[in-house]
């Protein structure tokens, strides 16, 4: 049986270890796929996006994306995504509405199975509802 | 807590799905395949049984030559096995009346339309019209059709020069069967589109699909022009405020809508409910008057009547609140607002009444919309409220509206206004008042709170999203 991909097969590194960015700042993301897992990867995507969480249905907006097709080589298994962050929306953790920014890496194994690794980040200074301490 | 019974199905929220993707894809493909199969069979049947015979008949009719005839006999003949009325033509002298009429014509509508047409007219020839009607067609309808061709009338017809027994009263072409082809074709299109979507869903990631949708939504599908970038920035548009200058200050805030529709809905419910209850109430009262009261029915109807009375009172209260209290207006000096910024505003309240109190508040709400089964629900959470001003015990006259200036500050570090299809963070200025004799009223005016960065930068960033697809 063909081995499957796991979340350990990819390592995501942000250019800021604390993952906090101001709107408009540039962000650089490096996603490195493990050399042993690389032959199993049919395609890989790195996306910079925000999505909503909480009570409401999920809304999602992809700000930037990079995609490579397999087979991955020593060069292509290291994906770099550079982009200026937009001015809005800011990260937000409200009562029923949350806005979450993240870098999402998705690996396809060619058998309709996908492995997703998500690295959260914070955009802006807001993280609580207005008036909260 | 673990259920004692196996769970056969669970309600899914939104687009979240569970289970095997492979089985899900197979099911979707099968579902759309049924649409394609049914549509394709219907197309084939329609083409083979309707369109091709029509085309064949059209070619045959095109070879006929125009002539004129006089109606010498017209009658209704019922023939089993035909599915519609037809006109048949016989040229007098070519066949005897008892013989089967020669091959024919078209539907009654086409015949009537073509009779008015002019054409080259040879010498009049005798024509016998026979309306052949299916048993399902009423005799009077067949006769009404036949009445259009009174005996002795000269009508236009077309005859086959090689076989004069073959003639027709019409050469019209039926277009409606071609339009009917749209029905099975639409099934095929639905199936094909569904299959493509299912295949794309199974092969493309959710991020990639959203990216494609984002690109498509940036352009007007008809003009190709770039649309507003409000969805990309997740900021509400300020257009309705920019286009609304104030009298005292620069901007007049738009009143949050929805009140009129609510009132119309309440009116409809109230009228229908009370009409139904009224019918039962009349019966109950009639029984009481006649001395034979039906107490069980009375016990059921009375609570319904009480509910109807409460509905009428609520409708009256809301109507008075909406129309009795004069117009409220809120104007502000700058727009959009930035968190931490202090801005000035003024509230103007028209009307003629006395107020116990009137307050102005700055409010922030989170609004989440979600699907639960087939229902769409909305949950609202108020996360910030600050009363900016309160006036007590005063009177408003028509010639002297109430006017009160105020200042407000959106807290430093507060979340900006946020708008996405199912989630929203909304800032509002709320005017609430308690008239002396009328019910309390509340009017809300939407504010746009933007992030502290320069607005043009936000717009520019939204116009040029970074995307690299290798």
Structure description:
The complex is a heterodimer of chains A (133) and B (470). In chain A, 0% of the residues lie in helices and 51% in strands. With 133 residues, chain A is mainly beta. With 470 residues, chain B is an alpha+beta fold. Chain B is built from eleven helices and 14 strands. In chain B, strands 2-3-1-4-5 form a five-stranded mixed beta sheet. The C terminus of chain B is likely disordered. At the A-B interface, strand 4, strand 5, strand 6 and strand 8 of A face helix 1, helix 6, helix 7, strand 9 and strand 10 of B.
Give the strand content of chain A.
over 45%
For the CA atoms, what is the radius of gyration of chain B? Answer: 37 Å
Give the quaternary arrangement of the chains.
Answer: heterodimer
Counting DSSP H or I runs of 4 or more residues, the number of helices of chain A is: 0
- The backbone outline of chain A, from C-alpha atoms, is globular
User: Major sheet of chain B: size, sense and barrel closure?
Assistant: 5 strands, mixed
Summing up helix and strand content along with how strands pair, one would put the structural category of chain A as mainly beta
Structural class of chain B: alpha+beta
Biggest interface goes to: A-B, 52 and 62 residues
